[in-house]
Amino acid sequence: MEPLNTYGPVYGLRETLSAGTYPVCCVYRVVDLTEGRYLLSGASDASVAVYDVQRATDYEGGGLIAKHKSIVVVDKQHEQGHKYAVSSAIWYPIDTGLFITGSYDHYVKVWDTNSTQVVMNFKMPGKVYRTAMSSLATSHMLIAAGTEDVQVRLCDIASGAFAHTLSGHRDGIMTVEWSTSSEWVLVTGGCDGAIRFWDIRRAGCFRVLDQSQSQLGRRPPLLERSALNKVSTSKSSSVGQNLSAKSRPQQRKSTNGNGVKQSPIGRIPAKASVRQRLHPGMLSGQDRATAHYGAVTGLKVTDDGMYLLSAGSDSRIRLWDVQSGCNTLVNFETVRLQTSKAIQIATSQDPALVFVPCMTAVKAFDVWSGKTRMAFRGHYEYVNCCWFSSQDQAIMLNSLKELYTGGSDGKILVWSPSRLISDESVDHLVSVACYFTFHVKFYWHALKP
Q: pLDDT for 341-355, tens place per residue?
């Protein structure tokens, strides 16, 4: 049992959801405006399951641990089911009447939840690693799909066809993530170690992250930045007015024989400086930049859209400033990450934590310092995915914040804060541990005497 210094809520295991004996590849829960109670998961036995997280089927450990059985299951025995592992399962952002799955059988399927029938099929050129839909979108209904092919494909639910493809990666795309501040911006991570930003309305990516381009420190909050900008703008404008009043050079029109205006530099036509207007991601020098020394296995945009967290097969976690595209150089403590498959990471805002599957445990790191704050141990085998319900979602559900983890042991564990820790008792907290037999029996929190 590894002692950790923690702060804030102490998390304990509250529920366990049995997904069979096959590895759970993905978990996804959406808080819709009507109920907000259903969890969606996909497993390597080609099955997809839906759980009602508000209605337990059994209790163990003196009523401390709630157990849930699936209310909807679609497996390979289903006539329209997937044939190989389900690598991605997401809810349709508007409600839970539809869900989308991606599989190693090269298909992305759109399902009707009530009838458990496929309403739309998209054939991909290779294994599907990850799918994503924008929760902000009001102008499109696109599914972004990352596969072992080098192109990102956008599937349009409205038309039932591919909208277009995004070309730029030199190897398969393991993870895709939509921006949380714009419905048009998509972020992709590939096996080539590159992270690319795309505006889906335009051709080519507009940014490629480079781990060698860095900046130290956090950006100031939005209100502070706007106040500083107003002050600097007013000063610069007053200085500019004084200078222009003192001296204003005469402007002459210079034209060539065709009457076209000349650029002041070398008399090159102004329209000839096309290279400066190209997207940075399309320039040869920046196009080969890498964000990780191995494959990019996980991406997560923070809720405010200002930062991006990435995980790679080089066992590195990096925090990026989205506006500048710079590596913030936060030194996350050494971890071991899976190298052969995509992982699903999660974040929380208050406190600012990132939850990362680290082999058989999930570790919570402080986003700004990189220090390990908590470790969640309970799975017997590798943890593949995690999902965290935010503060707003917890308020909507009138419940506590919860962390969902899915592992190769076929279990989905639900972790909730057991109690809030006062400032005086933080120093006495040693660790959070969970103990299991074949089924979950009990959990406890170790406090130093």
A: 889 999 988 778 999
